[in-house]
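Please fill in the sequence for the structure shown.

STRUCTURE ENCODING:
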Protein backbone atom coordinates (compact mmCIF):
# COMPACT_ATOMS: atom_id res chain seq x y z
CA UNK A 1 0.00 0.00 0.00
CA UNK A 2 0.95 3.64 -0.36
CA UNK A 3 1.16 6.08 2.56
CA UNK A 4 1.60 9.82 2.85
CA UNK A 5 3.54 11.61 5.58
CA UNK A 6 2.93 15.37 5.90
CA UNK A 7 5.92 17.49 6.93
CA UNK A 8 9.56 17.95 6.12
CA UNK A 9 11.64 17.77 9.29
CA UNK A 10 13.65 15.15 11.12
CA UNK A 11 10.53 13.80 12.79
CA UNK A 12 8.93 13.17 9.41
CA UNK A 13 12.07 11.55 8.00
CA UNK A 14 12.07 9.14 10.96
CA UNK A 15 8.33 8.47 10.70
CA UNK A 16 8.41 7.90 6.94
CA UNK A 17 11.53 5.72 7.17
CA UNK A 18 9.94 3.57 9.88
CA UNK A 19 6.67 3.23 7.94
CA UNK A 20 8.60 2.25 4.79
CA UNK A 21 10.01 -0.77 6.64
CA UNK A 22 6.53 -2.25 6.99
CA UNK A 23 6.23 -5.30 4.71
CA UNK A 24 2.84 -4.10 3.50
CA UNK A 25 4.08 -0.68 2.41
CA UNK A 26 5.60 -0.23 -0.98
CA UNK A 27 5.88 3.54 -1.04
CA UNK A 28 5.73 6.42 1.43
CA UNK A 29 5.24 9.85 -0.10
CA UNK A 30 6.49 12.78 1.96
CA UNK A 31 4.98 16.24 1.53
CA UNK A 32 7.26 18.03 1.12
CA UNK A 33 10.19 16.23 2.78
CA UNK A 34 13.90 17.08 2.60
CA UNK A 35 17.06 15.70 0.98
CA UNK A 36 17.04 12.75 3.40
CA UNK A 37 13.55 11.66 2.43
CA UNK A 38 14.42 12.28 -1.24
CA UNK A 39 17.32 9.80 -1.07
CA UNK A 40 15.87 7.21 1.32
CA UNK A 41 14.80 3.96 -0.39
CA UNK A 42 11.00 3.56 -0.41
CA UNK A 43 10.30 7.27 0.08
CA UNK A 44 9.37 9.91 -2.48
CA UNK A 45 8.98 13.63 -1.93
CA UNK A 46 6.07 15.55 -3.37
CA UNK A 47 6.21 19.36 -3.52
CA UNK A 48 2.73 19.95 -2.10
CA UNK A 49 1.70 21.79 1.07
CA UNK A 50 -1.85 23.08 0.46
CA UNK A 51 -4.48 20.81 2.03
CA UNK A 52 -6.89 20.70 -0.96
CA UNK A 53 -4.00 19.62 -3.20
CA UNK A 54 -2.91 16.99 -0.69
CA UNK A 55 -6.45 15.61 -0.71
CA UNK A 56 -6.44 15.52 -4.49
CA UNK A 57 -3.07 13.75 -4.44
CA UNK A 58 -4.22 11.21 -1.81
CA UNK A 59 -7.26 10.35 -3.92
CA UNK A 60 -5.35 10.11 -7.18
CA UNK A 61 -2.63 7.89 -5.67
CA UNK A 62 -5.06 5.82 -3.55
CA UNK A 63 -3.12 6.65 -0.39
CA UNK A 64 -4.24 4.20 2.31
CA UNK A 65 -3.33 6.39 5.29
CA UNK A 66 -1.91 9.88 5.77
CA UNK A 67 0.15 10.60 8.90
CA UNK A 68 0.65 14.22 9.97
CA UNK A 69 3.95 15.27 11.54
CA UNK A 70 3.82 18.98 12.49
CA UNK A 71 1.30 21.06 14.43
CA UNK A 72 0.68 23.72 11.77
CA UNK A 73 -1.39 21.54 9.41
CA UNK A 74 -3.22 20.03 12.42
CA UNK A 75 -4.08 23.53 13.63
CA UNK A 76 -5.27 24.36 10.12
CA UNK A 77 -7.69 21.43 10.19
CA UNK A 78 -6.00 18.97 7.82
CA UNK A 79 -7.55 16.02 9.68
CA UNK A 80 -11.06 17.48 9.46
CA UNK A 81 -10.59 18.11 5.74
CA UNK A 82 -9.25 14.61 4.95
CA UNK A 83 -12.02 12.98 6.99
CA UNK A 84 -14.66 15.08 5.23
CA UNK A 85 -13.22 13.82 1.94
CA UNK A 86 -13.53 10.22 3.16
CA UNK A 87 -9.76 9.72 3.50
CA UNK A 88 -7.97 7.94 6.36
CA UNK A 89 -5.64 10.19 8.32
CA UNK A 90 -3.87 9.89 11.67
CA UNK A 91 -3.86 12.96 13.89
CA UNK A 92 -6.25 15.06 15.98
CA UNK A 93 -8.91 17.33 14.54
CA UNK A 94 -8.53 21.08 14.74
CA UNK A 95 -10.74 21.17 17.84
CA UNK A 96 -8.74 18.43 19.60
CA UNK A 97 -5.45 20.05 18.60
CA UNK A 98 -6.32 23.02 20.82
CA UNK A 99 -4.48 21.18 23.60
CA UNK A 100 -1.40 22.47 21.80
CA UNK A 101 -2.65 25.44 19.82
CA UNK A 102 -4.03 27.32 22.83
CA UNK A 103 -2.13 27.33 26.11
CA UNK A 104 -5.21 28.82 27.81
CA UNK A 105 -7.40 26.02 26.47
CA UNK A 106 -4.85 23.48 27.77
CA UNK A 107 -4.63 25.16 31.19
CA UNK A 108 -8.40 25.39 31.61
CA UNK A 109 -8.70 21.79 30.48
CA UNK A 110 -6.14 20.67 33.07
CA UNK A 111 -7.82 22.67 35.80
CA UNK A 112 -11.23 21.22 34.92
CA UNK A 113 -9.89 17.66 34.99
CA UNK A 114 -7.52 18.00 37.97
CA UNK A 115 -4.34 17.34 36.03
CA UNK A 116 -1.19 18.53 37.85
CA UNK A 117 0.40 21.61 36.26
CA UNK A 118 1.90 24.96 37.28
CA UNK A 119 -0.44 27.55 38.82
CA UNK A 120 -1.27 30.35 36.36
CA UNK A 121 -3.32 33.40 35.52
CA UNK A 122 -4.39 34.66 32.08
CA UNK A 123 -4.27 38.23 30.76
CA UNK A 124 -5.15 40.34 27.77
CA UNK A 125 -4.39 43.78 29.16
CA UNK A 126 -0.85 44.75 30.14
CA UNK A 127 -1.80 46.69 33.30
CA UNK A 128 -3.27 43.68 35.10
CA UNK A 129 -0.38 41.50 33.93
CA UNK A 130 2.15 44.00 35.35
CA UNK A 131 0.19 44.21 38.60
CA UNK A 132 0.21 40.40 38.88
CA UNK A 133 3.98 40.32 38.39
CA UNK A 134 4.41 42.84 41.23
CA UNK A 135 2.58 40.44 43.54
CA UNK A 136 4.39 37.28 42.43
CA UNK A 137 8.16 37.12 42.86
CA UNK A 138 10.31 35.89 39.95
CA UNK A 139 11.12 33.47 38.46
CA UNK A 140 7.91 33.53 36.46
CA UNK A 141 7.06 32.02 33.10
CA UNK A 142 5.28 34.16 30.51
CA UNK A 143 3.60 32.29 27.66
CA UNK A 144 1.79 33.43 24.54
CA UNK A 145 -1.54 31.64 24.16
CA UNK A 146 -1.12 30.69 20.51
CA UNK A 147 1.37 28.77 18.38
CA UNK A 148 4.70 30.58 18.18
CA UNK A 149 7.21 28.03 16.82
CA UNK A 150 9.07 27.83 20.13
CA UNK A 151 9.25 31.63 20.57
CA UNK A 152 6.22 31.99 22.81
CA UNK A 153 7.71 31.14 26.20
CA UNK A 154 9.93 33.34 28.36
CA UNK A 155 11.32 32.03 31.61
CA UNK A 156 11.84 35.35 33.42
CA UNK A 157 14.45 35.24 36.17
CA UNK A 158 13.66 38.76 37.38
CA UNK A 159 10.58 41.01 37.69
CA UNK A 160 12.10 43.28 35.00
CA UNK A 161 12.38 40.41 32.54
CA UNK A 162 8.80 39.42 33.29
CA UNK A 163 7.57 42.98 32.72
CA UNK A 164 9.40 43.27 29.43
CA UNK A 165 8.09 39.87 28.24
CA UNK A 166 4.56 41.15 28.93
CA UNK A 167 5.27 44.35 27.01
CA UNK A 168 6.74 42.45 24.07
CA UNK A 169 3.58 40.36 23.75
CA UNK A 170 0.73 42.62 24.86
CA UNK A 171 2.05 46.08 23.92
CA UNK A 172 4.51 45.59 21.05
CA UNK A 173 2.53 42.58 19.75
CA UNK A 174 5.77 40.83 18.73
CA UNK A 175 3.93 37.59 18.04
CA UNK A 176 0.80 39.19 16.60
CA UNK A 177 -2.45 37.41 17.43
CA UNK A 178 -0.65 34.39 18.91
CA UNK A 179 0.40 36.64 21.79
CA UNK A 180 -2.69 38.81 22.23
CA UNK A 181 -3.63 36.62 25.19
CA UNK A 182 -0.97 35.39 27.59
CA UNK A 183 -0.56 33.32 30.69
CA UNK A 184 1.80 33.96 33.55
CA UNK A 185 2.80 30.76 35.20
CA UNK A 186 4.50 29.53 38.34
CA UNK A 187 8.11 28.46 37.67
CA UNK A 188 8.57 24.73 38.19
CA UNK A 189 11.89 23.26 39.14
CA UNK A 190 12.98 19.77 38.21
CA UNK A 191 13.94 17.57 35.29
CA UNK A 192 12.02 17.67 32.02
CA UNK A 193 10.94 14.55 30.19
CA UNK A 194 8.80 13.88 27.16
CA UNK A 195 6.03 11.34 27.54
CA UNK A 196 4.38 10.54 24.22
CA UNK A 197 1.43 8.24 23.66
CA UNK A 198 -0.79 7.10 20.81
CA UNK A 199 -4.53 7.10 21.36
CA UNK A 200 -7.65 6.09 19.47
CA UNK A 201 -9.74 8.31 21.74
CA UNK A 202 -10.43 5.51 24.25
CA UNK A 203 -7.31 3.40 24.54
CA UNK A 204 -3.75 4.46 25.16
CA UNK A 205 -0.49 3.03 23.89
CA UNK A 206 2.47 4.74 25.60
CA UNK A 207 5.59 5.09 23.48
CA UNK A 208 9.06 4.80 24.99
CA UNK A 209 10.12 7.64 27.29
CA UNK A 210 12.48 10.30 25.94
CA UNK A 211 14.21 13.51 26.87
CA UNK A 212 14.85 16.57 24.72
CA UNK A 213 17.55 19.26 25.16
CA UNK A 214 15.90 22.59 24.43
CA UNK A 215 18.74 25.05 25.03
CA UNK A 216 21.30 25.82 22.34
CA UNK A 217 24.45 25.45 24.44
CA UNK A 218 26.01 22.77 26.63
CA UNK A 219 24.86 22.46 30.25
CA UNK A 220 21.40 23.73 29.24
CA UNK A 221 22.54 27.31 28.64
CA UNK A 222 21.63 29.82 25.94
CA UNK A 223 18.45 30.44 23.99
CA UNK A 224 15.61 27.96 23.61
CA UNK A 225 15.55 25.98 20.38
CA UNK A 226 13.24 23.40 18.86
CA UNK A 227 15.48 20.79 20.49
CA UNK A 228 19.20 20.08 20.07
CA UNK A 229 19.12 16.35 20.75
CA UNK A 230 17.18 13.60 22.49
CA UNK A 231 17.53 10.08 23.79
CA UNK A 232 15.31 7.18 24.79
CA UNK A 233 14.63 5.56 27.21
CA UNK A 234 15.04 7.86 30.20
CA UNK A 235 16.12 5.60 33.03
CA UNK A 236 15.06 7.92 35.86
CA UNK A 237 11.47 7.62 34.68
CA UNK A 238 11.08 4.48 36.78
CA UNK A 239 8.21 2.02 36.33
CA UNK A 240 6.61 3.61 39.43
CA UNK A 241 6.87 7.09 37.96
CA UNK A 242 5.41 5.83 34.69
CA UNK A 243 2.42 4.47 36.61
CA UNK A 244 2.01 7.86 38.28
CA UNK A 245 2.20 9.67 34.91
CA UNK A 246 -0.43 7.36 33.41
CA UNK A 247 -2.67 7.60 36.47
CA UNK A 248 -2.43 11.32 37.25
CA UNK A 249 -1.93 12.75 33.76
CA UNK A 250 -2.52 10.56 30.71
CA UNK A 251 -5.69 8.73 31.85
CA UNK A 252 -7.32 11.98 33.07
CA UNK A 253 -6.47 13.67 29.76
CA UNK A 254 -8.13 10.95 27.69
CA UNK A 255 -11.12 10.74 30.07
CA UNK A 256 -11.34 14.54 30.18
CA UNK A 257 -11.42 14.76 26.39
CA UNK A 258 -14.24 12.21 26.36
CA UNK A 259 -16.17 14.13 29.04
CA UNK A 260 -15.72 17.31 27.02
CA UNK A 261 -16.94 15.41 23.94
CA UNK A 262 -13.74 15.97 22.03
CA UNK A 263 -12.66 12.97 20.01
CA UNK A 264 -8.86 12.74 19.97
CA UNK A 265 -7.01 10.35 17.69
CA UNK A 266 -3.30 10.65 17.16
CA UNK A 267 -0.05 11.06 18.98
CA UNK A 268 -0.18 13.13 22.15
CA UNK A 269 2.96 14.54 23.72
CA UNK A 270 3.03 15.59 27.36
CA UNK A 271 6.05 17.75 28.22
CA UNK A 272 6.56 17.04 31.91
CA UNK A 273 8.54 18.48 34.76
CA UNK A 274 9.53 15.87 37.32
CA UNK A 275 9.92 17.73 40.61
CA UNK A 276 12.37 16.93 43.39
CA UNK A 277 9.55 15.05 45.15
CA UNK A 278 9.19 12.83 42.05
CA UNK A 279 5.87 14.40 41.11
CA UNK A 280 5.13 14.80 37.40
CA UNK A 281 3.54 18.09 36.31
CA UNK A 282 2.52 19.12 32.82
CA UNK A 283 4.49 21.94 31.18
CA UNK A 284 2.76 21.65 27.84
CA UNK A 285 0.88 19.36 25.52
CA UNK A 286 1.75 18.86 21.89
CA UNK A 287 -0.78 17.18 19.63
CA UNK A 288 1.93 15.39 17.67
CA UNK A 289 5.20 13.58 18.05
CA UNK A 290 8.21 15.53 19.33
CA UNK A 291 11.13 16.57 17.20
CA UNK A 292 13.88 15.38 17.83
CA UNK A 293 12.38 12.80 20.28
CA UNK A 294 10.82 10.86 17.38
CA UNK A 295 14.20 10.07 15.87
CA UNK A 296 15.51 7.96 18.80
CA UNK A 297 12.02 6.59 19.51
CA UNK A 298 11.60 5.30 15.94
CA UNK A 299 15.10 3.83 15.93
CA UNK A 300 14.13 1.80 19.02
CA UNK A 301 10.67 0.73 17.87
CA UNK A 302 10.88 -2.93 16.87
CA UNK A 303 7.17 -3.33 16.09
CA UNK A 304 5.74 -2.44 12.73
CA UNK A 305 4.35 1.11 13.10
CA UNK A 306 1.67 0.69 10.43
CA UNK A 307 -0.66 -1.69 12.34
CA UNK A 308 -0.37 0.52 15.43
CA UNK A 309 -1.66 3.46 13.40
CA UNK A 310 -4.32 1.35 11.69
CA UNK A 311 -5.67 0.12 15.02
CA UNK A 312 -5.59 3.64 16.44
CA UNK A 313 -7.65 4.92 13.51
CA UNK A 314 -10.06 1.98 13.86
CA UNK A 315 -10.52 2.39 17.62
CA UNK A 316 -8.91 -0.94 18.53
CA UNK A 317 -5.58 0.22 19.89
CA UNK A 318 -6.20 -1.97 22.99
CA UNK A 319 -5.35 -4.99 20.80
CA UNK A 320 -1.84 -3.69 20.17
CA UNK A 321 1.43 -3.56 22.01
CA UNK A 322 4.73 -2.00 21.04
CA UNK A 323 8.05 -3.79 21.30
CA UNK A 324 11.20 -1.76 21.94
CA UNK A 325 14.89 -2.36 21.40
CA UNK A 326 16.32 -2.63 24.91
CA UNK A 327 19.26 -0.46 23.89
CA UNK A 328 19.38 3.33 24.22
CA UNK A 329 19.01 5.50 21.14
CA UNK A 330 20.52 8.97 21.21
CA UNK A 331 20.21 11.70 18.59
CA UNK A 332 22.53 14.70 18.23
CA UNK A 333 21.15 17.61 16.22
CA UNK A 334 23.55 19.42 13.89
CA UNK A 335 22.16 22.92 13.42
CA UNK A 336 22.99 25.62 10.89
CA UNK A 337 25.06 28.71 11.46
CA UNK A 338 22.83 31.38 13.03
CA UNK A 339 20.22 28.96 14.44
CA UNK A 340 17.81 29.61 16.12
CA UNK A 341 17.57 33.33 15.27
CA UNK A 342 18.59 33.45 11.65
CA UNK A 343 19.84 30.16 10.21
CA UNK A 344 22.04 30.38 7.13
CA UNK A 345 21.11 28.24 4.13
CA UNK A 346 23.00 26.62 1.25
CA UNK A 347 26.09 25.37 3.07
CA UNK A 348 27.23 22.14 1.42
CA UNK A 349 27.18 19.12 3.77
CA UNK A 350 30.16 16.75 3.41
CA UNK A 351 30.69 13.22 4.62
CA UNK A 352 27.22 11.75 4.30
CA UNK A 353 27.79 9.32 1.44
CA UNK A 354 30.05 6.80 3.23
CA UNK A 355 27.97 7.03 6.37
CA UNK A 356 24.74 6.18 4.57
CA UNK A 357 26.38 3.02 3.19
CA UNK A 358 27.52 2.12 6.72
CA UNK A 359 24.12 2.87 8.18
CA UNK A 360 22.55 0.39 5.75
CA UNK A 361 25.06 -2.35 6.56
CA UNK A 362 25.21 -1.97 10.35
CA UNK A 363 21.63 -0.88 11.10
CA UNK A 364 22.70 0.58 14.43
CA UNK A 365 22.50 4.24 13.56
CA UNK A 366 20.53 6.47 11.23
CA UNK A 367 21.16 9.99 10.00
CA UNK A 368 17.79 11.70 9.89
CA UNK A 369 17.63 14.87 7.83
CA UNK A 370 15.68 18.01 8.79
CA UNK A 371 16.61 21.29 7.07
CA UNK A 372 18.37 19.89 4.00
CA UNK A 373 17.77 20.06 0.27
CA UNK A 374 19.49 19.11 -2.95
CA UNK A 375 21.54 22.04 -4.22
CA UNK A 376 25.13 23.19 -4.66
CA UNK A 377 26.78 23.96 -7.99
CA UNK A 378 25.26 21.10 -9.95
CA UNK A 379 22.13 20.64 -7.89
CA UNK A 380 23.31 17.20 -6.74
CA UNK A 381 24.92 18.13 -3.47
CA UNK A 382 23.16 18.06 -0.12
CA UNK A 383 22.98 21.55 1.36
CA UNK A 384 21.57 23.14 4.50
CA UNK A 385 18.07 24.52 4.10
CA UNK A 386 16.82 25.20 7.62
CA UNK A 387 17.75 25.68 11.29
CA UNK A 388 18.08 22.12 12.43
CA UNK A 389 19.91 20.31 9.66
CA UNK A 390 20.50 16.70 10.71
CA UNK A 391 19.83 14.46 13.69
CA UNK A 392 22.53 11.81 13.95
CA UNK A 393 20.86 9.03 15.90
CA UNK A 394 22.65 5.99 17.24
CA UNK A 395 21.89 2.89 19.29
CA UNK A 396 24.15 1.79 22.13
CA UNK A 397 24.07 -0.53 25.14
CA UNK A 398 23.51 2.47 27.41
CA UNK A 399 23.33 6.28 27.18
CA UNK A 400 27.10 6.62 27.28
CA UNK A 401 27.69 4.09 24.49
CA UNK A 402 24.95 5.57 22.29
CA UNK A 403 26.34 9.05 22.95
CA UNK A 404 29.89 7.97 22.10
CA UNK A 405 28.88 6.42 18.80
CA UNK A 406 26.57 9.34 17.83
CA UNK A 407 29.38 11.87 18.36
CA UNK A 408 31.86 9.69 16.44
CA UNK A 409 29.50 9.90 13.46
CA UNK A 410 28.91 13.63 13.95
CA UNK A 411 32.69 14.18 13.69
CA UNK A 412 32.63 12.71 10.19
CA UNK A 413 30.00 15.18 8.92
CA UNK A 414 31.00 18.72 8.03
CA UNK A 415 29.33 21.91 6.94
CA UNK A 416 30.35 25.53 7.49
CA UNK A 417 29.09 27.01 10.72
CA UNK A 418 27.56 23.80 12.09
CA UNK A 419 26.45 23.99 15.72
CA UNK A 420 26.08 21.05 18.06
CA UNK A 421 25.76 20.45 21.76
CA UNK A 422 28.47 18.19 23.15
CA UNK A 423 26.51 16.84 26.09
CA UNK A 424 23.33 15.28 24.72
CA UNK A 425 22.22 12.65 27.23
CA UNK A 426 24.05 14.22 30.20
CA UNK A 427 21.11 13.81 32.57
CA UNK A 428 20.79 10.18 31.51
CA UNK A 429 24.42 9.57 32.42
CA UNK A 430 24.43 11.56 35.66
CA UNK A 431 21.14 10.37 37.12
P1 LIG B 1 6.63 24.99 26.65
O1 LIG B 1 6.57 25.37 25.19
O2 LIG B 1 5.43 25.36 27.42
O3 LIG B 1 7.08 23.58 26.88
O4 LIG B 1 7.86 25.79 27.22
C1 LIG B 1 9.16 25.74 26.64
C2 LIG B 1 10.18 25.49 27.71
O5 LIG B 1 10.09 26.49 28.73
C3 LIG B 1 9.96 24.18 28.46
O6 LIG B 1 10.54 23.11 27.79
C4 LIG B 1 10.64 24.46 29.78
O7 LIG B 1 12.02 24.31 29.70
C5 LIG B 1 10.33 25.92 30.00
N1 LIG B 1 9.11 26.06 30.84
C6 LIG B 1 7.84 26.16 30.42
N2 LIG B 1 6.98 26.28 31.45
C7 LIG B 1 7.73 26.25 32.57
C8 LIG B 1 7.43 26.32 33.96
N3 LIG B 1 6.20 26.49 34.42
N4 LIG B 1 8.47 26.22 34.83
C9 LIG B 1 9.75 26.09 34.40
N5 LIG B 1 10.08 26.02 33.09
C10 LIG B 1 9.10 26.10 32.18
N1 LIG C 1 11.06 18.61 21.03
C1 LIG C 1 10.01 19.44 21.43
C2 LIG C 1 8.87 19.49 20.52
O1 LIG C 1 8.78 18.72 19.58
O2 LIG C 1 8.00 20.31 20.72
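FILLED IN BY: designer on duty
SEQUENCE:
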Amino acid sequence: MKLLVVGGGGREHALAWKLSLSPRVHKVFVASGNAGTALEPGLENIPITAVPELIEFAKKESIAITVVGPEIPLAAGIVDAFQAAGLKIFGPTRQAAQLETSKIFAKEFMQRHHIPTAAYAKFTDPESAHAYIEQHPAPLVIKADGLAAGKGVVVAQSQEEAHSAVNALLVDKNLGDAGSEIIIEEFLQGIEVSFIIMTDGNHILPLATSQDHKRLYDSDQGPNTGGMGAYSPVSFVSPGLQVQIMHSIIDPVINGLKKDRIHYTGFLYAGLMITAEDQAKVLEFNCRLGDPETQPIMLRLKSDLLPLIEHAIDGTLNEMDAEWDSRTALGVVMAAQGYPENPRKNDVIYGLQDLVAEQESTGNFHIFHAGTSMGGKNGNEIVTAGGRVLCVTSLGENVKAAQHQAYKIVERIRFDGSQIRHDIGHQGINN
